[in-house]
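Morning run. Coffee first, then this:
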Amino acid sequence: MDALLTALQRAGRDLLTPRMLTLSLWPMLLALLAWGLLAWLFGAELKDWLTAWLATTPFDDLAARVGAGWLAGYAALLILALVWLPAMYVTALMITSLALMPVIVAFVAARDYPALERRRGGGFVGSVANGLVALVLYLAAWLVLLPVWLFAPFGILVSVLLNAWLNQRLFMYDALAEHASAAELKAQRHAGGGRLFALSTLLGLIHLVPVLNLVAPVYMALAFSHHALAALAASRAEAAA
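And here it is:
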Protein backbone atom coordinates (compact mmCIF):
# COMPACT_ATOMS: atom_id res chain seq x y z
CA MET A 1 0.00 0.00 0.00
CA ASP A 2 2.93 2.35 0.65
CA ALA A 3 3.93 2.08 -3.01
CA LEU A 4 0.44 3.11 -4.12
CA LEU A 5 0.35 6.08 -1.76
CA THR A 6 3.80 7.12 -2.92
CA ALA A 7 2.67 7.01 -6.55
CA LEU A 8 -0.39 9.14 -5.74
CA GLN A 9 1.65 11.61 -3.69
CA ARG A 10 4.32 12.04 -6.36
CA ALA A 11 1.66 12.39 -9.06
CA GLY A 12 0.07 15.20 -7.07
CA ARG A 13 3.43 16.90 -6.65
CA ASP A 14 4.18 16.64 -10.38
CA LEU A 15 0.71 17.82 -11.37
CA LEU A 16 1.39 21.16 -9.65
CA THR A 17 4.42 21.90 -11.82
CA PRO A 18 3.79 24.51 -14.55
CA ARG A 19 4.46 22.04 -17.38
CA MET A 20 2.01 19.39 -16.14
CA LEU A 21 -0.63 21.94 -15.18
CA THR A 22 -0.51 23.28 -18.71
CA LEU A 23 -0.91 19.80 -20.17
CA SER A 24 -3.58 18.73 -17.70
CA LEU A 25 -6.39 20.90 -19.06
CA TRP A 26 -6.13 19.93 -22.72
CA PRO A 27 -7.54 16.36 -22.74
CA MET A 28 -10.84 17.19 -21.03
CA LEU A 29 -11.26 20.51 -22.82
CA LEU A 30 -10.74 18.91 -26.24
CA ALA A 31 -13.08 16.05 -25.35
CA LEU A 32 -15.72 18.48 -24.08
CA LEU A 33 -15.40 20.56 -27.22
CA ALA A 34 -15.68 17.55 -29.54
CA TRP A 35 -18.65 15.95 -27.81
CA GLY A 36 -20.32 19.28 -27.11
CA LEU A 37 -20.22 20.04 -30.83
CA LEU A 38 -21.66 16.60 -31.65
CA ALA A 39 -24.41 17.09 -29.07
CA TRP A 40 -25.27 20.50 -30.53
CA LEU A 41 -25.36 19.15 -34.10
CA PHE A 42 -27.12 15.83 -33.54
CA GLY A 43 -28.50 15.83 -29.99
CA ALA A 44 -32.08 16.79 -30.87
CA GLU A 45 -32.31 14.18 -33.64
CA LEU A 46 -30.92 11.46 -31.38
CA LYS A 47 -33.34 12.38 -28.59
CA ASP A 48 -36.30 12.21 -31.00
CA TRP A 49 -35.10 8.85 -32.35
CA LEU A 50 -34.69 7.39 -28.87
CA THR A 51 -38.09 8.72 -27.80
CA ALA A 52 -39.70 7.09 -30.84
CA TRP A 53 -37.85 3.82 -30.16
CA LEU A 54 -38.95 3.79 -26.52
CA ALA A 55 -42.54 4.18 -27.75
CA THR A 56 -42.21 0.74 -29.39
CA THR A 57 -41.06 -0.96 -26.19
CA PRO A 58 -42.94 -2.07 -23.03
CA PHE A 59 -41.57 1.08 -21.39
CA ASP A 60 -44.22 3.13 -23.23
CA ASP A 61 -47.05 0.92 -21.95
CA LEU A 62 -45.72 1.13 -18.41
CA ALA A 63 -45.48 4.93 -18.57
CA ALA A 64 -49.03 5.16 -19.96
CA ARG A 65 -50.43 3.03 -17.12
CA VAL A 66 -49.04 5.38 -14.50
CA GLY A 67 -50.14 8.46 -16.45
CA ALA A 68 -46.61 9.53 -17.32
CA GLY A 69 -46.56 9.59 -21.10
CA TRP A 70 -44.01 12.40 -20.94
CA LEU A 71 -41.52 10.03 -19.29
CA ALA A 72 -40.15 8.71 -22.60
CA GLY A 73 -38.58 12.08 -23.43
CA TYR A 74 -36.78 12.24 -20.10
CA ALA A 75 -35.69 8.61 -20.42
CA ALA A 76 -34.20 9.40 -23.84
CA LEU A 77 -32.23 12.30 -22.32
CA LEU A 78 -30.99 10.02 -19.53
CA ILE A 79 -29.81 7.40 -22.05
CA LEU A 80 -27.98 10.07 -24.05
CA ALA A 81 -26.30 11.36 -20.88
CA LEU A 82 -25.22 7.86 -19.87
CA VAL A 83 -23.60 7.43 -23.28
CA TRP A 84 -22.26 10.98 -23.69
CA LEU A 85 -20.45 11.21 -20.35
CA PRO A 86 -18.36 8.01 -20.69
CA ALA A 87 -17.68 8.85 -24.34
CA MET A 88 -16.22 12.19 -23.29
CA TYR A 89 -14.22 10.52 -20.51
CA VAL A 90 -12.82 7.86 -22.85
CA THR A 91 -11.94 10.49 -25.44
CA ALA A 92 -9.93 12.42 -22.84
CA LEU A 93 -8.14 9.23 -21.80
CA MET A 94 -7.30 8.34 -25.40
CA ILE A 95 -5.92 11.84 -26.02
CA THR A 96 -3.78 11.51 -22.90
CA SER A 97 -2.64 8.00 -23.81
CA LEU A 98 -1.66 8.65 -27.43
CA ALA A 99 -0.56 12.29 -27.38
CA LEU A 100 0.64 13.10 -23.87
CA MET A 101 1.97 9.90 -22.28
CA PRO A 102 5.40 10.05 -23.96
CA VAL A 103 5.87 13.56 -22.55
CA ILE A 104 4.56 12.55 -19.12
CA VAL A 105 6.68 9.40 -18.85
CA ALA A 106 9.79 11.30 -19.94
CA PHE A 107 9.06 13.97 -17.30
CA VAL A 108 8.57 11.40 -14.53
CA ALA A 109 11.60 9.32 -15.54
CA ALA A 110 13.93 12.32 -15.71
CA ARG A 111 12.80 13.56 -12.33
CA ASP A 112 12.63 10.35 -10.27
CA TYR A 113 14.11 7.45 -12.27
CA PRO A 114 17.04 8.88 -14.30
CA ALA A 115 19.11 5.70 -13.99
CA LEU A 116 16.37 3.36 -15.24
CA GLU A 117 17.50 1.75 -18.50
CA ARG A 118 15.27 2.16 -21.56
CA ARG A 119 14.68 -1.20 -23.25
CA ARG A 120 11.84 -0.06 -25.54
CA GLY A 121 9.60 -3.12 -25.44
CA GLY A 122 6.61 -1.14 -26.71
CA GLY A 123 5.92 1.76 -29.00
CA PHE A 124 3.35 4.00 -30.63
CA VAL A 125 1.87 1.23 -32.78
CA GLY A 126 1.46 -0.98 -29.73
CA SER A 127 -0.11 1.89 -27.81
CA VAL A 128 -2.64 2.50 -30.61
CA ALA A 129 -3.48 -1.22 -30.82
CA ASN A 130 -3.81 -1.48 -27.04
CA GLY A 131 -6.02 1.62 -26.96
CA LEU A 132 -8.32 0.40 -29.72
CA VAL A 133 -8.82 -3.00 -28.08
CA ALA A 134 -9.48 -1.35 -24.73
CA LEU A 135 -11.91 1.11 -26.32
CA VAL A 136 -13.94 -1.58 -28.07
CA LEU A 137 -14.16 -3.79 -24.97
CA TYR A 138 -15.02 -0.87 -22.71
CA LEU A 139 -17.79 0.51 -24.92
CA ALA A 140 -19.24 -2.95 -25.52
CA ALA A 141 -19.36 -3.64 -21.77
CA TRP A 142 -20.85 -0.19 -21.10
CA LEU A 143 -23.66 -0.69 -23.62
CA VAL A 144 -24.43 -4.21 -22.42
CA LEU A 145 -24.59 -3.01 -18.81
CA LEU A 146 -26.69 0.12 -19.44
CA PRO A 147 -29.83 -1.53 -17.94
CA VAL A 148 -27.99 -1.76 -14.61
CA TRP A 149 -28.45 2.01 -14.33
CA LEU A 150 -32.11 1.35 -13.56
CA PHE A 151 -30.72 0.52 -10.12
CA ALA A 152 -28.58 3.63 -9.60
CA PRO A 153 -26.14 2.36 -6.91
CA PHE A 154 -25.24 -0.65 -9.07
CA GLY A 155 -24.87 1.60 -12.11
CA ILE A 156 -22.35 3.78 -10.27
CA LEU A 157 -20.46 0.69 -9.12
CA VAL A 158 -20.32 -0.68 -12.67
CA SER A 159 -19.09 2.71 -13.92
CA VAL A 160 -16.29 2.83 -11.34
CA LEU A 161 -15.15 -0.74 -12.05
CA LEU A 162 -15.21 -0.29 -15.83
CA ASN A 163 -13.25 2.95 -15.52
CA ALA A 164 -10.73 1.22 -13.26
CA TRP A 165 -10.21 -1.53 -15.83
CA LEU A 166 -9.81 1.00 -18.65
CA ASN A 167 -7.33 3.13 -16.67
CA GLN A 168 -5.18 0.11 -15.93
CA ARG A 169 -5.37 -1.28 -19.47
CA LEU A 170 -4.37 2.01 -21.11
CA PHE A 171 -1.85 3.58 -18.80
CA MET A 172 0.19 0.58 -17.66
CA TYR A 173 1.18 -0.16 -21.25
CA ASP A 174 2.03 3.45 -22.02
CA ALA A 175 3.95 3.93 -18.76
CA LEU A 176 6.18 0.90 -19.42
CA ALA A 177 6.55 0.98 -23.21
CA GLU A 178 9.74 3.07 -23.29
CA HIS A 179 11.62 1.54 -20.35
CA ALA A 180 10.55 -2.12 -20.17
CA SER A 181 11.59 -4.91 -22.49
CA ALA A 182 8.80 -6.84 -24.22
CA ALA A 183 8.99 -9.56 -21.55
CA GLU A 184 9.06 -7.04 -18.70
CA LEU A 185 6.16 -5.14 -20.24
CA LYS A 186 4.02 -8.27 -20.30
CA ALA A 187 5.01 -9.31 -16.78
CA GLN A 188 4.59 -5.91 -15.12
CA ARG A 189 1.18 -5.26 -16.64
CA HIS A 190 -0.13 -8.37 -14.87
CA ALA A 191 1.99 -8.22 -11.73
CA GLY A 192 0.06 -5.72 -9.65
CA GLY A 193 -2.98 -7.84 -8.87
CA GLY A 194 -5.44 -6.41 -6.39
CA ARG A 195 -3.13 -3.57 -5.37
CA LEU A 196 -2.87 -2.31 -8.92
CA PHE A 197 -6.63 -2.56 -9.40
CA ALA A 198 -7.08 -0.63 -6.15
CA LEU A 199 -4.94 2.15 -7.60
CA SER A 200 -6.99 2.08 -10.81
CA THR A 201 -10.23 2.25 -8.82
CA LEU A 202 -9.08 5.19 -6.71
CA LEU A 203 -8.03 7.06 -9.83
CA GLY A 204 -11.29 6.16 -11.55
CA LEU A 205 -13.23 7.88 -8.77
CA ILE A 206 -11.57 11.22 -9.51
CA HIS A 207 -13.51 11.71 -12.74
CA LEU A 208 -16.73 11.75 -10.66
CA VAL A 209 -15.55 14.82 -8.72
CA PRO A 210 -16.44 18.17 -10.34
CA VAL A 211 -13.47 20.42 -11.17
CA LEU A 212 -10.97 17.67 -10.28
CA ASN A 213 -12.23 15.66 -13.24
CA LEU A 214 -10.81 18.35 -15.53
CA VAL A 215 -7.26 17.33 -14.61
CA ALA A 216 -8.01 13.66 -13.86
CA PRO A 217 -6.56 12.12 -17.06
CA VAL A 218 -3.12 13.69 -16.62
CA TYR A 219 -3.10 12.99 -12.87
CA MET A 220 -3.92 9.34 -13.65
CA ALA A 221 -1.14 9.23 -16.22
CA LEU A 222 1.34 10.61 -13.70
CA ALA A 223 0.26 8.16 -10.99
CA PHE A 224 0.50 5.14 -13.29
CA SER A 225 3.87 6.32 -14.58
CA HIS A 226 5.26 6.53 -11.05
CA HIS A 227 3.78 3.19 -10.06
CA ALA A 228 4.96 1.37 -13.19
CA LEU A 229 8.50 2.77 -13.25
CA ALA A 230 8.99 2.19 -9.53
CA ALA A 231 7.77 -1.40 -9.86
CA LEU A 232 10.04 -1.97 -12.87
CA ALA A 233 13.06 -0.58 -11.01
CA ALA A 234 12.31 -2.78 -7.99
CA SER A 235 11.89 -5.84 -10.20
CA ARG A 236 15.26 -5.29 -11.86
CA ALA A 237 16.96 -4.68 -8.52
CA GLU A 238 15.48 -7.91 -7.17
CA ALA A 239 16.60 -9.86 -10.26
CA ALA A 240 20.13 -8.48 -9.94
CA ALA A 241 20.42 -9.30 -6.21
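The radius of gyration is 20 Å. Good start to the day.
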